[in-house]
Amino acid sequence: MMPLRTCMVWVMVATSSRCVHATRTSKVFLLPEEQRDHLEPLLTAMHTLGIKEFDDRHADSWDAAAHTNEFDVVWSYEYPEWDMLGPLPPHTKVNHLPGNYALVTKGHVYTNQLRLQHLYGKDHFDFIPQQFRLPDERSQFVAAFEASTNAAAAAVAVRQPPSATAADDPNYGRRWLIKNQNHRGVHFFSGLNHLDKYMSSNDMVAQCIEPLLISGHKFDIGLYVTISSIDPLRVYIYHNALLRMCKLKYPKDLDDSADVESYVVDDYLPPWEMPDLKEYYKAIPSEDREGTSHFAVLKMYLDSINMDSSRFQQDIYGAVAKLVAGNRGHFVRTEAQFRAANHQPHGHFFEMYRFDFVVDDSGKPWLLEVNQSPNLAPKHFATGTDAKMKRNIVHDLLTLVGIQSPHEASLPNTIFQV
Question: Where is the signal peptide (predicted)?
Fold first, then answer.
């Protein structure tokens, strides 16, 4: 992990109430998950680091979570069942932060951006596309729609987007998305005359970002981010990234008739197969090596089309730092409330997320969503795989947070340099 700030982790000294368990020298993890196919990199990293799985007939469920003196880290894919968790010893770690909905629930994330804009100014917190809930926020949406339409007309008048010809797209900069509240897909519209049928739906309408294209394909970039501590705040971003290319080329005029695989990244193509990127990959990712950094490749591509890659890196890392730091107060309060309500004075919480961005045709990154428990299952292609990268991410994460046995935690003045 690459730190946003240099830090050291100090490990708390074991208390006398646990000394009966301090002789256990092995490190143990609890994984209350029955389905594990997507967690192969995690299990590999645990094995490599000598962390054994808790041996109990209920070890793959939350029924085992009461035995907190028998394991040193709890890793769950879903949000923890906190009421099933026994009293946490000081050294024990849990891979979720209480109150993480502030980062992973889209409505909360956008509301937080508005709050931070009010406190610090829009120029510093303008990296999440505008969104509105209908019909309650109709007037705000209409104002935003008209403003974006006027801005799009002005932009087309002075420049040509680098990845598409705006003149060939009559709806350039005017598209908005209607997101069904029941997750039944999205619909595009570019005129207010289409709005009335959604006035009783309680659906979300969001601004559609005009994407930068690579070899004609839309893409997104995911940053792996770890919050290892809230107080003090410590945030790390992995040096590599997940770069995913839509399977089909982006249409010239995006509307409801377009194939979803041309604008939604789900099943995707590997970036090293894109003609515009091939020359930048000196090493293709494989089972044994991480290969050339996708983040570095994207920066080289931006430079090649005369976009400022340094500014791009500053903006995308800055969005992560600002959003996390802007919610620090929430996490401090929520953790304190959680500890009081659940009688958990000890234990340590951390979390890894994936921040997914789309890049617009001016090179600006826009945050689409923050994923709790990002998928760690390796993606295999005929020409390569991201398996090694995902194993390295988890290995570095576990090393970073410093998993300890009770015996190690009981030693005085124990310090892990990370």
Answer: 1-22
Cβ atoms of 85 and 338 within 8 Å: the answer is no
CA dist., res. 263 & res. 247, Å (int): 9
Residue 94, φ and ψ in degrees, nearest 5: -130, 135
Q: 126 Cβ partners below 8 Å, 6+ apart?
A: 113, 117
How confident is the model over 147-202, as pLDDT tens digits?
A: 988 887 777 666 555 445 566 788 888 899 887 766 556 788 878 887 777 776 77
Are 357 and 316 in contact by the 8 Å Cβ rule? The answer is: yes
Q: What confidence tens digit (pLDDT) does each residue in 279-293 have?
A: 999 999 999 999 999
* Local structure of residue 3 (DSSP, 8 states): E
Give the C-alpha distances (Å, rounded to integers) separating 29 from 49, 372, 391: 11, 20, 17
Residue with tokens 């930068």: 212
Nearest Cα to Cα of residue 2 among 320, 339, 409:
320
Q: Could you tell me if 366 and 358 are in contact, meaning their C-beta atoms sit under 8 angstroms apart?
A: yes
More confident residue, 224 or 253: 224
| CA 271 from centroid of its chain's CA atoms | 19
Three-class secondary structure of residue 286 per DSSP: coil
Dihedrals phi, psi of 331, to nearest 5 degrees:
-65, -40
Which residue bears the tokens 């962390």? 51
